[in-house]
């Protein structure tokens, strides 16, 4: 567990739970995207199965640790969002293991695009819930516990009701480790059955140290990237590997076109954007909300220390000359509403053309 970036207090708590043997049957790791709550849950699962654990953590060398590190331990099961009405996680285990090896700090969009989401949205299906019930009803193969690590239970929706009895009265030596980012999207009946392990965004120092350790990034650049990432290590890794941000360029292009208000340009932009797929469209809107929040900070405080790249800061400063706090708030409201509509399968061409026209009206209002 020592290889996990930051979260010293949380790691100490988990070590104490493992050492005392007082592990709740259901834990909910709740934290923002890129905070490392998935990495923590996976490391904790390994610790629980370790045959030679010490006060410092799992030994890393026993058979259980070696299997857990490769995500192949027969008593550590994984559940996660997939694509398809009848999909189950076991259909994607090979891809999942590779994704965890590459980046256990990944976000939902990165994962779903890896599965070829395109215009499909991720979910945790009825068939997946039934498969979980069946798997956890069996005896453990070789470990002390049967452990289910469920990443993003937000994607369960109402299907989560199928797991309520299992979570409330699990078979002996069965542990649920749920890993979530948005508490409001999880059924209250599931939340009430879990003990909360809350993680915060990583500090800039932790992110910088992680970049130097895991990517060999030079110290000054690591500190720059850490500041821009805002405690999200997944974003920090993307910035380190790909300095250019397509979402940033796309947003600035859209804002310029909305400012000009040329109908032909807006239609062309909307038709091109509609081809990106729903998960990419949501990711773009989340970036847009981040940009607008930083603009609000600049308008409210005048501070140039924004978590944006230099060219983005320049654009934000120029836009702040013609946009007041109220207009920025209206734009953010539009973006937030669009996330909701995309999740409910609104027609993207109609939705974003209408949004473009409304943005033009907001930008041009005196």
Protein model, in words:
By secondary structure, the protein is an alpha/beta fold. It folds into three domains: 8-200, Rossmann fold (3-Layer(aba) Sandwich), CATH 3.40.50; 205-241; 246-364, Zinc Finger, Delta Prime, domain 3 (Up-down Bundle), CATH 1.20.272. The protein is built from 17 helices and five strands. It has a five-stranded parallel β-sheet, sandwiched between helices. Strand 3, helix 7 (164-168) and strand 4 form a beta-alpha-beta unit. It is globular. 40% of the residues are buried. The model has no long low-confidence stretch (mean pLDDT 93).
Can you give keywords for this protein?
366 residues, alpha/beta, Rossmann fold, Zinc Finger, Delta Prime, domain 3, 3 domains, five-stranded parallel beta sheet, 7% strand
Largest sheet: 5 strands, parallel
User: How much of the sequence is in beta strands?
Assistant: 5-15%
Number of helices: 17
Major β-sheet strand ordering: 2-3-4-1-5
Question: What structural category characterises the helix and strand content?
Answer: alpha/beta
Radius of gyration: 22 Å
Can you say what the CATH homologous superfamily of the largest domain is?
A: P-loop containing nucleotide triphosphate hydrolases
CATH topology name of the largest domain, in short, is Rossmann fold
Query: What's the overall geometry?
Result: globular
**Low-pLDDT residue spans:** none
For this structure, what is the CATH class of the largest domain? Alpha Beta
Count of spatially separate domains: 3
Q: Which CATH-level-2 architecture of the largest domain?
A: 3-Layer(aba) Sandwich
Give the CA-CA distance, first to last residue: 56 Å
Q: Name the assembly state.
A: single chain
